Description:
single chain, flat
Amino acid sequence: MSRILTHSTPATPGRRQSAGRKGWGSLPVVPRRVAILIALLAIWQAYVSFSGVNPLIMSSPIEVARALVEGWVGGGIAGSTLTTLKVLFLGMAIGIAVATVLTTLATWSRLGEDVLVLLTSMINPLPAIAILPLAMLWFGLNSTALVFVIANAVTWPIAINVSMGFRTVNPTILAVSRNIGLRGIRIVADVLIPAALPHIVSGLKTAWAYGWRTIIAAELVFGVAGGKGGLGFFINDARYFLRTPEVFAGLVTIMLIGIAFDLIFTLIERRTVVRWGMKAT
Length: 281
């Protein structure tokens, strides 16, 4: 009787979790995700092979991989990627500089704080791509318009995060720094920035994501408008001439670069704010 009761007793959530960890959950993260990726690629290949879908609409993973390799070896994707990254980094550099100036002024004076709060509340909710038509009127169909749009997209996430980091610095640390004679730029560079480092890294990570999405969208619009650009133009050009594998290859490149930069920011976080005990893993 006791054996029957033992076998009929339902497993508790803790037991089910423990059993799960012994199977799929016990594997390392990388093999688990690689297995999921292989399964998705297999489903994709099977759909293209057996569904009879029009190849102008859907390419197989093998065709996409071939187009990806040829694009990088031939320089088509590599050149477009380099163009996109140049514009993105320049726009991010300008955005970081503007955000630094705004948050520093907001730290020093009430007027600067009011200016930052007002500009953030007005411009941050505005989709960055909505600025593009105005940028094209001001600067024409060239990379300057893209840089302007990217700078606008990355300035406000950085400013919001850095401002939040500055405001949450321990008041005791600020009082001690003033007592030892730190003022002006010294208190920002030696106290506020190190103390707000988790917020700064988070702001840069968010700004990178905003900027990356914005530049691809802006380059797609540039391609439709007739201007040459980077990856967005490459994708639009391939779509126009029905080179579907190249369209997918461009999208895969965007995803791979996004993953690479996400890993870089994660590594920076682990080597700085996590290692120094400023943020939990």
